[in-house]
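Closing statement on the FE2/S2 (inorganic) cluster sub-project.
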Amino acid sequence: MLDPANRGRFKDIHVIYGARAPGMLLYREELAAWERRDDIHMHITVDSTNDPNWKYNVGFVPTITEQKIKSADNAIAMVCGPPIMIKFTQPVLERLGFPPERIILSLEMRMKCGIGICGRCNIGDQYVCKDGPVFSLAQLKQMPPEY
Ligand code: FES
């Protein structure tokens, strides 16, 4: 989406990026570069902090999503992270009006061997490692509620 060859195909980009604490944020240089752009709206958040100089959000990703995303019109939501975050962000996105086919979830955290051998990643007859790991919520709603 940020590649200059593709950028014109997309409008505003909101990035809601959460970590447990400020020291656990990854990709700091990329985050800083994205913050300087006016076509990317950065919403960095941590679960909690005692840092008096912290200038970003404090709160869980689902809460920040609800606060910062004002419209689902012509938008796609992509969610990647720990299953508990995905579990609580998904209903927020649905309440905001994102249809299930435009909520894209990445389920890598379910994978163990990653090559289709251990059988630990399956949801019904789908293997996250072989058939995903990215699924739309519309696809997941057709599967057993195990994700
Ligand atoms: S991660 Fe082992 S079968 Fe998918």
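The chain has a mean pLDDT of 95. With this model delivered, the sub-project is considered complete and its resources will be redirected to Aim 3.
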